Amino acid sequence: MPHLSGKSLGQYQIIEPIGSGGTAQIYRAYQPSVKRDVVVKVLSPSFRDEPGFVKRFEQEVDVIAHLQHPQIIPVYDYGEQDGDVYIVMAYMRGGTLADRIDQSQGGLPDKETIRIFSLIAKGLDYAHAKGVVHRDLKPNNILMDEEDNPYLADFGLAKFTEGRIELTNTMMTGTAAYMAPEIAREGKSTKRADIYALGIILFEMLTGRLPYEGTTPYKILSAHINQPIPRIRDFRSGLPEAVQQVIDTAIAKNPASRYASAEEMAAAFRSVMSTMETPPAVARVGQARSLNLPFRMKWLLPIAVAVLAIAGMIFGASLFSREEEVPSLSENPTVHIAQAVNTADGDTQWTFGCLGDGGSALVDLGCRKIRIAVENRILPYNYIFLATNQPGGMDYDMWWEICTRLHCQPVFIEEKWESLLDDLGAGDYDAASEGITITEERRAFLAFSISYLNIEQRLVVRKGETRFADISEFVADPTLLAGALENSTNFEVARQYIPESRIRTFKEYSTVFYALTTGDVDAAVADQVEGETTVSGIDFQQANNLEFTGNSLSSDQFGIAFPKDSDLVAPINKALQDMRAQGVLEALIARYFGTDFRVTYSDIGLGAYEQ
Question: Fewer Cβ in 10 A, N or C end of the chain?
Fold first, then answer.
């Protein structure tokens, strides 16, 4: 959006921009009537005609207007002028808590941590007492004044009631690094999820680093769900041993096991730290608070900055930089807002505008609508940016690239897996897209009897067998055996839950499931099933066989299915081949799984369009 520097919005004289992101521009401004600097947050033009985004702005004002507390940033005004919708807030000159942690070289001084953390806890408990769940608590959303006093900010995601995050599927509300396991799994956001985020912040204030890291947001979420809580004294040996109990309680996997309030956590922390007679010599295994994300993802900026902090932030140094854009990828899809409607079956349908240009298209489909079924609640293939209420993920990005090359209009329908194949086979859709292979083998004898271990892996049982309520039910029976692919993510996940003496490993996926069908094992831990490339009523087009070496997730990432005799097979294969030639397919893999994967192709379904 064009900078407003030098102009006025109402009585506020815009001085300079101090931050920006996907939905808003942040300015420092001057209010001459009371002679003070303020922050003006202006909704981006791309979103101001969308009622949902304006509503979020109004919600932020409404929420903070009900919260009058010394540790909560005050909102002064809300208005609209010449189409610009804006919020006016207090200007804090001390930057953010994230800035302080970054400058600390291994954690803040203990006395400072105790004081700042106690104040944050008071502000959060006050919000909770008013029925407000923040839902995006992180150091970037805690502002500091010139006396180093903290203020909770950015309540744009907050709600007056607990409950599920308003998503069609589970997605990264706020930043993945601070997200409670129940949000990643179910979208469930409560006060205890705020307590979890506060526990992560405490760990970071003490050590200068995050407890869970990963090369992608997806892997970070998986770590929150599956990895044990790190030992904080591994990073600061001088801390009292009892600090671990505070951390263990604050970020317990089970919400019911966490502290009931922020002040309860702060009191426990103060009590533990009071046993330290003198500050210990610093013995810290520290590193910058980076999330260990080696790649740059322009389109995924809203994940890292789901709602903008209102002052002191320089987004050029954000986790997902705008610099080093992935080469060859089409323009930012969030510029073209998708319209969402609920279908008669209760599914969500997302309609984009026509993409690409007929004059430069590989095949000109004349803005034809292509109805694409995608399986919902599968990260990282399909999710929602809550900051923009727009869909995202590998499925969307892949089809965005395809339609840009074919001059067509993608329409996505989110469905459960069980319905997706039947509806596609009946001709209800033009295509189906999934990150895992669509197979007759899976449909025939597994009968979708699956229990999720986490957002990535599944416990699969034979057709006709009782579905386990969760992994603990399976583990409770010592006679049951599980099969997994050796040297794979599936095996690593399996042994986190199941004794290794009860895990049978196999060299090929097909062998795992052969063993399952013959009764040699009672369940399989898998994120996909490989088998025949035909589903009943559907011709399966395996666009490219991607074999990951090193860290194995799945060997078929771009599964596309069509009804029989579809006229889309040839043009879409041509688009995929063009994407391959330009390095776009590799770029998408790097975007969602990191740069440590090597991609190889077997060219199934692509041979006719070799260049």
Answer: C
416 plus 564 within the same structural domain: yes
Which residue has 């067509």 as its token pair? Answer: 408
Measured distance CA(505)–CA(520) in Å, rounded: 12
Gap between the Cα atoms of 157 and 175, Å rounded: 12
Tens of pLDDT, residues 122-171 = 999 999 998 888 888 999 899 999 999 999 988 755 554 444 443 322 33
Whether residue 361 has pLDDT greater than 50:
yes
| Overall number of domains in the chain | 4
Cβ atoms of 482 and 471 closer than 8 Å: no
Examine residue 219 and state whether it is found in any structural domain, yes or no.
yes
Radius of gyration for the chain, computed over Cα atoms and rounded to the nearest angstrom:
25
329 occurs within a structural domain: no
Over residues 441-467, the mean pLDDT reads: 48
pLDDT tens-digit readout, 4-33: 888 999 999 999 998 765 567 889 999 999
Could you tell me the residue range of the domain that residue 449 belongs to? 441-526
Our CA dihedral for 546, 548, 554, 555, rounded to 10 degrees, sits at: 30
Query: Any idea which residue has 């989110």 for tokens?
Result: 414
Residue 381 to residue 395: CA distance in whole angstroms: 5
Residues 304 and 164 in one domain: yes
Q: Which residues contact 282 (CB under 8 A, 6 or more apart)?
A: 106, 236, 238
Rounded distance between C-alpha atoms, residue 269 and residue 278, angstroms: 16
Number of H helices, E strands in the chain: 18, 25
Q: Each residue of 470-516: pLDDT tens digit?
A: 677 888 899 999 998 887 767 877 887 889 999 999 886 667 767 77
Task: Please indicate, yes or no, whether residues 72 and 106 belong to a single structural domain of this protein.
Answer: no
- Given the residues 125, 136, 430, 522, select the one marked as catalytic: 136
Closest by CA to 195, choosing from 185, 208, 181, 212, is: 181
**Amino acid 308: pLDDT:** 24
